[in-house]
Amino acid sequence: MRLLAASIVLLSSACYSGAGEATPEGSSSETEAPPTTADDPSTTGSTLPPADEGTSTSGASTSGADSSGTGQPAEGSDSSTGDPGGPTSSFCECSTDNPAADAGSFEMCAELLPDGRGTYYELGPYTRTEDAETQPGVPQGMMTAASFSGSAVYPNTTWDYWVYVPDQYDGSEPAALLVLTDGNVYRRNDGSAPYRTPTVLDNLIDEGAMPMTIAVFVDPGQSNGNSTRSLEYDTPDPNYVTFLLDELLPEAVGGYAITDDPDRRAIGGRSSGGAAAFTAGWERPDAFGLIYTTIGSFVQLRANADGEFSARYPDLITAEPPLPLRVTLLSGSEDLDNQFGNWRDAHMAMTTALDCAGYTYRSGFGEGGHGDQFHPYHAFGRDMRWLFAETVGNE
């Protein structure tokens, strides 16, 4: 995978000092009202060209130039896996060294590059896009439900999951793979469902914006009547990705031809599920090279056996050569701020680390809190387009 650079830096706890929304972390339920339908989402504040897929995207930039005077790598230059990282935009320097940025301004440093990499700041309102609306003549995939038990990684636990198979799949060639945590949140496709992921996949696959992709929607496990969501998602260790690769996925999609190419295998989620997705890619980049996260819980929710939390990732990202990962992130100004950490600052820290380390990434920031996820709904199709762009030759 090409590692096109872009980055972000660890900011102080002074960033985004507004009080966080008192939403209990760990719940996989969705209670928000559905976004309204609009063909042309309204955004403001952009000083950059529109996003790569034609949706108006704001991203305020100081100048778009490297203020150090040292210049920046040519746009589109590659860094092969294992090479030293380094930003290709001015965001890393801006967010690291600028006192105003340290005080909490994501917007002043945002810089979205022409190929969709980098950072953007997007104001509301956030509306449902055409990607989530049923389009005439577009083939619809098939969704089946199942459950799994008998795990050796998480004994005495049962999971509900759903498998989406696109209409175009006939077994003649391996399909790409998308795994989404908090599966019931994403798999719902009725009129009031927020993400309407099956419809988005139908549209993007038909358009050629995504490869032919089989998706697996996995809910958190249940053990003795209790959810194991935090154990699975918040613990930064290889257990969850091992469970997926060795236990659940062989049963869920063992009868289908699935690619082994990590550049065509994505995992994603929201909140703790977003942290779990990043952990899966971090632990097994050979299995998942595409990482999708929104309002990610990169904070101190649950420690691993070594006493480490997901808040460790910015330090790890900048301390090691970049892994062959392509990452999306999204957060908002009213994201959580509680005894476990500040989700907004964690988003900034992750973005800065990825940018400064030279990862291929896309990081968005806007309005809203942890519960009213209109921005994630709005950006979902766009994020999928960017995540798979390289695999379909759109980059």
Kindly summarize this structure in a few lines.
With 395 residues, this protein is an alpha/beta fold. The protein is built from ten helices and 13 strands. The protein has helices at residues 91-97, 99-102, 183-187, 197-207, 229-233, 239-253, 272-283, 313-319, 343-357, 374-387, and strands spanning 118-122, 142-149, 158-165, 176-181, 213-218, 222-223, 226-227, 265-270, 290-294, 326-334, 337-338, 341-342, 360-369.
What would your notes on this structure say?
It is a single chain. By secondary structure, this protein is an alpha/beta fold. The protein has 2 domains: 1-13 and 41-75 and 106-125, no CATH class; 131-322 and 368-392, 3-Layer(aba) Sandwich (Rossmann fold). Helices cover 24% and strands 18% of the residues. It is built from 10 helices and 13 strands. The chain has helices at residues 91-97, 99-102, 183-187, 197-207, 229-233, 239-253, 272-283, 313-319, 343-357, 374-387, and strands at 118-122, 142-149, 158-165, 176-181, 213-218, 222-223, 226-227, 265-270, 290-294, 326-334, 337-338, 341-342, 360-369. A 9-stranded mixed beta sheet has the order 1-13-10-9-8-4-5-3-2, sandwiched between helices. A two-stranded antiparallel ribbon has the order 6-7. A two-stranded antiparallel sheet has the order 11-12. Strand 8, helix 7 and strand 9 form a beta-alpha-beta unit. Helix 4 (197-207) runs parallel beside helix 10 (374-387) and helix 8 (313-319) packs parallel to helix 9 (343-357). The longest helix is centred in the middle third of the chain and has 15 residues, at 239-253. The termini are close together. The model is unreliable at 1-84 (pLDDT under 50).
